[in-house]
Amino acid sequence: MYAFLLALHSLVRWFVLLSLVLAIARAYHGWFTGRKFSKADHRLRIVTVTIAHTQLLIGIWLYFISPLVTVFMQHFKQMVHERHIRFFGMEHITMMLIAIVLLTIGSAKTIRKPTYKQQFKCMAIWFSIALVIIFLSIPWSFSPFTARPLLRWF
User: Fold this and answer.
1) How large a percentage of the chain has pLDDT more than 90?
2) pLDDT band at residue 154 using 50, 70 and 90 as cut-offs
3) What is the spatial distance between Cα 32 and Cα 148, in angstroms, rounded to a whole number?
4) What is the mean pLDDT of residues 37-51?
5) 18-25 — which CB contacts under 8 Å span 24+ positions?
6) With 0-12 CB in 10 A as exposed, 13-18 as middle and 19+ as buried, what is 97?
7) By the 8 A CB rule, do 126 and 110 touch?
8) Tens digits of per-residue pLDDT, 58-93?
């Protein structure tokens, strides 16, 4: 089960990033061109947040069955000083939770804005901040301490 969830989590990451980048691009374009906040924009906002929440649920499930997290929790005082294990036991999940909360707040605030320009601006800012946090918290293949493959296979 662990290997399957890890591969799924790795795959869904790309859907989160793709939908988030698309939503941000549309938000900035709409903000600076003054176009109408369309049904497609609303759908993309909803799909982006839904994919991110799905990824969060997979990640939480993975967190509770991960051997790295188990070692981290069982030997917290020692493992908190081990960068690689601390990243997966504490940093990754904390930052991703913050990013998902920001996406959720940004999405909710977006639909409550009175003008199209304010909707696009709100979405652009909140989603951009979430993207930066997500990007910095992913264990990329080029990360010096937490390198992981760009895509795991099932």
Assistant:
1) 88
2) low
3) 37
4) 98
5) 19/44, 19/47, 19/48, 19/51, 19/52, 20/48, 20/52, 20/103, 20/127, 20/130, 20/131, 20/134, 21/131, 22/48, 23/48, 23/123, 23/127, 24/123, 24/124, 24/127, 24/128, 24/131
6) middle
7) yes
8) 999 999 999 999 999 999 999 999 988 999 999 999
The most distant pair of C-alpha atoms in the chain lies apart, rounded to whole Å, by: 54
CB 126 within 8 A of CB 134: no
| pLDDT of the residue at 111 | 96
Fill in the DSSP letter of residue 134.
Answer: H
Q: Three-class SS of residue 1?
A: coil
